[in-house]
Amino acid sequence: MSETDVVVIGGGQAGLSSAYHLRSSGLDIALLDANPAPGGAWQHRWPTLRMATVHGIFDLPGMRFAPPSPDEPAADAVPAYFAAFEREFGIDVQRPVAVTAVRNSRDGRLLVESDNGTWTTRALINATGTWTRPFVPYYPGQETFHGRQLHTAHYRGPAEFAGKRVVVVGGGTSAVQLLVEIADVAAATTWVTRRSPVFRDGPFTPDYGREVVAKVEARVRAGLPPGSIASATELSWTPQLLEARERGLLLRRPMFDRIVPDGVRWRDGAAQDVDVILWCTGFRPALDHLAPLRLRGPRGGIVVDGTRVVADPRIHLVGYGPSASTVGANRAGRAAVRELRALLAAPAQV
Ligand code: FAD
């Protein structure tokens, strides 16, 4: 068993930003990441997600992300940048190490158990993102469907949908991007969303970004599950989407009520035969390993003030709720480290 001052779980933007700010703190740290290589979730993004089609990747602290070619897959460009960052600042990420549980130990420390060792620590930064928790809502009859169902997280490009009838579920950016690229090869596409999608005419300004973050922040302060920055963000009219609208691809239908062996059915009796249901229905925070600490409040979320868990100030959630974007994760890493430095420097309360 190893002893340390701070364990950081997760080596994506949030974990690396935290590790950067911890370097000069004089604290011992262990940074554990379940992935086999640098890049956090970016190493798993689908190959057709290119730098031209991501929202924008904010620099990690202290190192510029030199703009790659717009055609470069994000799954190559971002992990290469993270790897260079780890080398540049000598950040030692222990990988692959998947944390299975965090518990209170008898001596007032936290016990971090993994598939590759155990640590005891005075404090914890949890930066595990959402990618490993894809969310698929339940619809009656789902288990009877004879076709294929998959989630965004398992999408690898449009080729495998050639000649298929595909229903794409979800009102976010991923849903419309995948809908448009699949439509080029599929026999037919149907787009369904729970609510009418809202498209923004204006550009994605910093003010609008702050507005979105404030919405998510209000939820986590109230102890509600955070929802994602992505789901609070309206769709933007990119040239790709304007063209898709011209081609009639963005005709959205309301959510179906039922899944049957060969397709989907609406309450009014309308029916659509389909071969594939693609669920672009988002992700949930990957926090199962924290369950033994019982941090969730009565409203289903973990109440945080900034990044600090209100129920246990030794624990910070970075990249959670309002900080679940590259810019948010950066700022949150700095804020969490500032608070932990003060906490760990203070004499222990007896
Ligand atoms: P991640 O990058 O997911 O890193 C978390 C790390 O924790 C992973 O390496 C994982 O292996 C590790 N981990 C998880 N569980 C454990 C465990 N139990 N033990 C050990 N390690 C663990 N944001 C933007 O700002 N701009 C964009 O353009 C953008 N595009 C996006 C596109 C898609 C399709 C999606 C899904 C999200 C996008 N986002 C974007 C949001 C984006 O996910 C965040 O901005 C940011 O990359 C998340 O960083 P993170 O460090 O919190 O999480």
TrEMBL record:
It comes from the Bacteria. The keyword Oxidoreductase applies. SUPFAM superfamilies: FAD/NAD(P)-binding domain. InterPro entries: Auxin_biosynth/cation_transpt (IPR050982), FAD/NAD-bd_sf (IPR036188). Keywords: Oxidoreductase. One of its GO terms (molecular function) is monooxygenase activity. This is Predicted flavoprotein CzcO associated with the cation diffusion facilitator CzcD.
